[in-house]
Each structure stands twice: as C-alpha cells, then as structure tokens.
Amino acid sequence: MRILITGGAGFIGSSLALHLIECGHEVTVLDSLLPQIHGADGRKSALFRRIDGHARFIHASVTDAAAWPAALDGQEAVVHLAAETGTGQSMYELQRYAEVNVGGTALLLQHLARQQGHSVRRIVVASSRALYGEGRYRTVDGALAYPSARKAEDLRAGRFEIYDAQGRAMEMLPTDEESLIHPSSVYGITKQTQEQLVMTMGRALGIAPTALRYQNVYGPGQSLTNPYTGILSIFSTRILHGRGLSIFEDGRESRDFVYIDDVVSATAAALLEPAAEGEVLGIGSGVATSVMEAARTLIAALGREVPVEVTGAFRVGDIRHNVADLSKARLLLGYEPRTSFAAGIERFAAWVRTQPLPDDGYERSLKELKDRGLMRG
Ligand SMILES: NC(=O)c1ccc[n+]([C@@H]2O[C@H](COP(=O)([O-])OP(=O)(O)OC[C@H]3O[C@@H](n4cnc5c(N)ncnc54)[C@H](O)[C@@H]3O)[C@@H](O)[C@H]2O)c1
Q1: 3-state helix, strand, coil in the chain (%, to 5)
Q2: Which pTM does this prediction carry?
C-alpha cells in the first residue's frame, strides 16, 4: 500500500514507518519537525534520521492547507499521528493545541471531501486514553461510576484517590471503549474532537476509519528533548544528569505503560485488518504500574542512584489512574501485548545510554505551569 503518515518523524510515527517499509509498503511522511520534539535543527534529530532516506519526506505542517494535495496524491491509506501532545502544556497553549490537533485534522478531511477521485480508502487516527478523564470506577455498592476531574481542595489536602459523594474510596476498573468520554485536559478535548472528526467524516466519505486510543507509550525512539510529555524520557534525562526525581501526589498514581513495538504491531494490524474498519480500539499493556514503581525500575535499569522525593504537588488536568481493557483489540485485531514493563524498561534504558545526553528542560516546564497556577503544592 501507499501510506501517508502524518507526524511520521515522531516517536510512534517513525517506528511505524520503518515497520511498514520493512513489510513492503511505500511510506510518505508529512511532519513539521517541531523543535520541541526534534530540537532546533529538525533535520539533524535522531528521530528524523531514522526515516531519512527510507520514507519520502514532506516538511510541512498539517495546518498548511497548501501541503495537503501533494501529500495525499496517490495515497491509499493515511495514519494521522501529527499532534501537539503535552497534557500540562495544553492547559495554557490552548490555541496552538486546537489549531494543530483539531484544525489540522479538519484540513486533512476537508481536502479529502473536496477532491473527487482521490485514492484514500483507509484512515487510522491516533487517539488517546486522555479522552476518558478519570476513567471507570466501581463504587463500594458495586455501581459503575465515571468520576469528574478531582477537586483542587481534595488534592491540596492529600486526598488523591477517587471518592464517592460519601467520601468512600472507589475501585479503579480498566477502561473499555464504551467508557464515558469526558476529558480533564485541553489535550484530551482536542484528541476527542480529532477522533470524532475522523470517525464521522471517514464514514461519510467512504474512507474506512479506525481510532486507536493509546495508553502511555514508551520505548526507544521516544523524544528525549521534550520536557512536556513522556514521563519515562523526562525521568531518564534527570537520572543521567544525576538529578533527583520529584514524584507528584503520593507516587501511587498509576499508568498503563505500553511498549512501542506493541503499539506499532497494533497500529499496523488496525490499518490492514478489515475487522478494524469503523472501530475505536483501546491499545495498552492492560497492566497498571504506579509512577513510583516506574521511577524505581528505571533508576535500577540505568544503574545510577538518584534521590526520589514524593512531593505531594499536583498538576491541574492530571488523572489518578488509567489502564486499558484490551478485550476488543484482542477480539478484532488479535492484539496481544508482548513486552512486559520490566523487559521494555531494560530495552529503553539500553537505548537511552546510546543517545547524546539532552538538556534537562523539566524544571522550566514545571515553572511554566506554576507561573500559571496549573501546578500546586
Ligand atoms: N506517546 C504516547 O504516549 C501517546 C499516547 C496517546 C496518544 N498519542 C498520540 O499519538 C500520536 C503520536 O505521538 P508520539 O508520541 O509519536 O508524539 P511525537 O511528539 O514523538 O511525534 C509527533 C510528531 O508530530 C509532528 N508534528 C507536531 N505538530 C505538527 C504539525 N503541526 N504538522 C506536522 N507535524 C507535526 C512532530 O514534529 C513529531 O514528529 C499523537 O497524535 C499523540 O497524541 C501518543
């Protein structure tokens, strides 16, 4: 197939591009080489160099209407990954997040809607677990609940878990695709709109759409220069600088860390598998890992002892827990995550050690949040 990958010079995109090329597909990448991900000279970034010479490359933004005709010409499928991806940053860079994630997607679909006789038959969009906000819970009475974003006064008082109206702690359940959509960040809102635009317009235009709601993806190739997202890459940079790790809340907040190879397999399967057409699928590891455990595992894998401090601070828009229910992806894609967190972290750490040590911009990114009242405690 001839496949266009937007954001194909990024972490997931470049890994997917190399896999699809290896499988014999012809890949075009459209990417703006965002300095936040690729550094000041994007053409020199390690991520870009992975695909350079292997995929046809178009250096453009998804927000540039003039770029779309050439990018889409002759393509049979589109994997739409280009996005602004920082949850915290999205809470003060609203216009940029809306313009790229929503506006860029609208331009892509508008071009397909206007151009009679285009060749695109499949479209896969990267969605996110951020759509679920706090996700799915069970009350002590056994009822299902979809709690709203946590209140600042609870977080300030160190009440980080999710409680019902009577103040009783609820039990987290894996989120399936039927779970309520109610994002707690601007990033999540833009990903929801992006997903809905693709699913609705894909069906309307006869271009079979699939949305993949990824959990926290990690592994070799993750941008090490972006201080705004990617907790494991942020931590690895701090550890290699010999700096301590500050863990938000009480360290027991958890994420579903899914290894890049599993995400690439799922995305390639979604693109090629007819059963995925018209479907929304959650992609993760199916395992919840606390941030504290993730930090300790990474420190051990990198073999550098640094202090770990639980700060009790919190960021507005962060969720407490999330883990994917993989039943639907298993059924429709035959998806099975193959890499355990322990094995994935070893491979990630081994790769990180081969990379130039980037500047540690994390403190700066936190200051931006603090200055705007979006990080407290
Ligand atoms: N990595 C994760 O944990 C995760 C989780 C859920 C969803 N996602 C989604 O998966 C997709 C890919 O994420 P990733 O981790 O590879 O991110 P990434 O930041 O590594 O890659 C994104 C790529 O998009 C490019 N890009 C950004 N703005 C652009 C624009 N205006 N025009 C063209 N290109 C642009 C960047 O230069 C970068 O190469 C995103 O849509 C993201 O929202 C990622």
Answers
A1: 40, 20, 40
A2: 0.96
| Lowest-confidence region among 38-42, 95-99, 356-360 | 356-360
Q: What is the CA radius of gyration of the chain?
A: 20
Report which residue type is found at 356. P
The span from the CA of 247 to the CA of 319, in Å, is 14
In angstroms, the CA 229 to CA 235 distance is 11
CB atoms within 10 A of CB 167: 8
pLDDT at 223: 87
Q: Which tens digit of pLDDT belongs to each residue from 137-167? A: 999 999 999 999 898 888 999 999 999 988 8
Instruction: Report which residue type is found at 376.
Output: R
For ligand 1, residues with CB inside 6 Å are 6-7, 9-13, 31-34, 37-38, 61-63, 81-85, 100, 104, 126, 128, 191, 214, 216-217, 223
Instruction: Please report the pLDDT score of residue 30 as a whole number.
Output: 98
Domains identified in the chain and CATH numbers: 2-376 (3.40.50.720)
Give the whole-number percent of the chain exceeding pLDDT 70: 99
Gap between the Cα atoms of 377 and 370, Å rounded: 10
Burial 275-285 (b: 16+ CB within 10 A, else e): ebbebbbbbbb
The best mutation among 6, 34, 175, 187 to test binding of ligand 1, ranked by most ligand atoms within 8 Å of the C-beta, falls on 34
